[in-house]
C-alpha cells in the first residue's frame, strides 16, 4: 500500500507526513478567496473579459476544491479528524456535487490497484495515447458542457436508482459518484448557500448560474480531463510506481489554471499517499537527491503531456 517504503526511511516518511490545521485552513481559504475574488472582479468591472476570466478562474478553483477533497479523503487536509471530514465534505466536495465517503472508498481502490485490471480509473488512462482528432473531440465535449450535462444527468438518475455509468465522462470516473437521494440533497443545500453568497457578493441574482454552474459544466470538466490524462494517461500498465504514473513539472500559469495545490506531483503522491500536498515538492527533490530521478516518469509541462497523449497516428 505504501510503495515509498522501499525508497524512503521511516523518519523521512514521518517528517513529510505531518498534518497541519493551519495549512488546511489556508488552502481552503485560498480556494474560496480566489472564487469570490474572481466574482467580485466582474461585479466591479463587468465586461466580456472579466466574465471569461471569472469563469476560468472559478472553474480552476472548482478543480482545486476537488483536489482538496482528495486531500481530505487521505486524511491529509487537516490534522484534526473532525475538521478534516467536515471541511472535506461541506467546503470542498458538496459544492461541486461530490461525496467524500464514496470518493474515499473508490479512490483507495485506485491506489491499491493502480494501472491494473482492477483499477477503477483504468478507463481514464487506457484509451491513451489516442489521435489528436479524438482528443480535440473530447475537449470540445468538455468545454461546450456536454460532458458536464451528462454527468449531472447521471447523478440525478443515480439518485432515483434509474441508471448506470455515463461512459466517457472523466469526472464520473474520477470523483466516483455513486449517489443517493440524501447525497444530492446535501449538495443542493451547499449550492443554495453558494447561490446566496454569490448574490450577496455581486449583487446579481444570476451570479450562481453564470459563475458557478457554468464553470462547473465547462471549464472544470476540461481541466479535470487534462489532470486525469497527465496523471495516468500514456504511461505503463504495470506495478512499477515509477512508470505507472506521472509527475508534470507545471509552470506558474499551469499551476494556476490546470494543476492547483501541487496535484501535478502525482508520482510522489502514489509513493506515499498520505503526505500532505504541500510537502510533495519536497518529496520530489528528495527522490532526485537519492538518485531516482532517471527512473521517474516526468513531463516538463502539460503541453508535452497532451502531445504524448495524442500521438497515435490518425
From TrEMBL:
<dbReference type="GO" id="GO:0008610">
    <property type="term" value="P:lipid biosynthetic process"/>
</dbReference>
<keyword id="KW-0812">Transmembrane</keyword>
<dbReference type="GO" id="GO:0016020">
    <property type="term" value="C:membrane"/>
</dbReference>
<keyword id="KW-0472">Membrane</keyword>
<feature type="transmembrane region" description="Helical">
    <location>
        <begin position="51"/>
        <end position="69"/>
    </location>
</feature>
<feature type="transmembrane region" description="Helical">
    <location>
        <begin position="183"/>
        <end position="200"/>
    </location>
</feature>
<dbReference type="InterPro" id="IPR012171">
    <property type="entry name" value="Fatty_acid_desaturase"/>
</dbReference>
<dbReference type="Pfam" id="PF00487">
    <property type="entry name" value="FA_desaturase"/>
</dbReference>
<dbReference type="GO" id="GO:0016717">
    <property type="term" value="F:oxidoreductase activity, acting on paired donors, with oxidation of a pair of donors resulting in the reduction of molecular oxygen to two molecules of water"/>
</dbReference>
<keyword id="KW-1133">Transmembrane helix</keyword>
<feature type="transmembrane region" description="Helical">
    <location>
        <begin position="23"/>
        <end position="45"/>
    </location>
</feature>
<feature type="domain" description="Fatty acid desaturase">
    <location>
        <begin position="49"/>
        <end position="289"/>
    </location>
</feature>
<protein>
    <submittedName>
        <fullName>Fatty acid desaturase</fullName>
    </submittedName>
</protein>
<dbReference type="InterPro" id="IPR005804">
    <property type="entry name" value="FA_desaturase_dom"/>
</dbReference>
Amino acid at each position: 500500500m505504501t510503495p515509498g517504503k522501499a525508497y524512503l526511511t521511516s523518519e523521512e516518511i514521518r517528517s513529510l507526513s505531518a498534518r497541519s490545521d493551519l495549512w488546511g485552513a489556508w488552502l481552503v481559504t485560498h480556494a474560496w478567496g480566489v472564487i469570490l475574488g474572481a466574482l467580485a472582479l466582474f461585479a466591479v468591472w463587468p465586461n466580456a473579459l472579466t466574465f471569461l476570466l471569472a469563469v476560468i478562474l472559478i472553474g480552476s478553483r472548482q478543480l482545486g476544491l476537488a483536489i482538496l477533497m482528495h486531500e481530505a479523503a487521505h486524511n491529509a487536509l487537516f490534522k484534526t479528524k473532525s475538521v478534516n471530514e467536515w471541511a472535506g465534505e461541506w467546503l470542498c466536495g458538496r459544492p461541486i456535487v461530490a461525496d467524500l465517503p464514496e470518493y474515499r472508498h473508490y479512490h483507495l481502490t485506485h491506489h491499491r490497484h493502480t494501472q491494473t485490471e482492477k483499477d477503477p480509473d483504468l478507463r481514464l488512462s487506457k484509451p491513451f495515447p489516442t489521435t489528436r482528432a479524438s482528443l480535440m473531440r473530447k475537449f470540445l465535449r468538455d468545454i461546450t458542457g456536454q460532458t458536464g450535462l451528462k454527468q449531472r444527468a447521471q447523478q440525478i438518475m443515480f439518485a432515483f436508482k434509474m441508471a448506470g455509468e455515463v461512459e466517457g465522462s472523466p469526472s464520473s470516473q474520477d470523483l466516483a459518484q455513486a449517489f443517493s437521494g440524501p447525497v444530492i440533497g446535501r449538495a443542493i443545500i451547499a449550492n443554495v448557500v453558494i447561490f446566496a453568497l454569490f448574490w450577496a457578493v455581486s449583487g446579481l441574482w444570476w451570479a450562481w448560474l453564470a459563475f458557478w454552474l457554468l464553470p462547473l459544466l465547462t471549464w472544470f470538466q476540461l481541466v479535470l480531463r487534462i489532470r486525469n490524462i497527465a496523471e495516468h494517461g500514456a504511461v505503463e500498465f504495470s506495478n512499477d510506481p515509477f512508470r505507472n504514473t506521472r509527475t508534470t513539472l507545471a509552470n506558474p500559469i499551469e499551476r494556476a489554471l490546470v494543476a492547483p495545490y501541487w496535484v501535478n506531483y502525482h508520482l510522489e503522491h502514489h509513493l506515499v499517499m498520505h503526505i500532505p500536498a504541500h510537502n510533495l515538492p519536497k518529496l520530489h527533490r528528495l527522490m532526485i537527491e537519492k538518485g531516482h530521478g532517471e527512473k521517474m516518469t516526468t513531463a516538463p509541462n502539460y503541453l508535452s503531456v497532451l502531445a504524448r497523449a495524442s500521438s497515435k497516428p490518425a
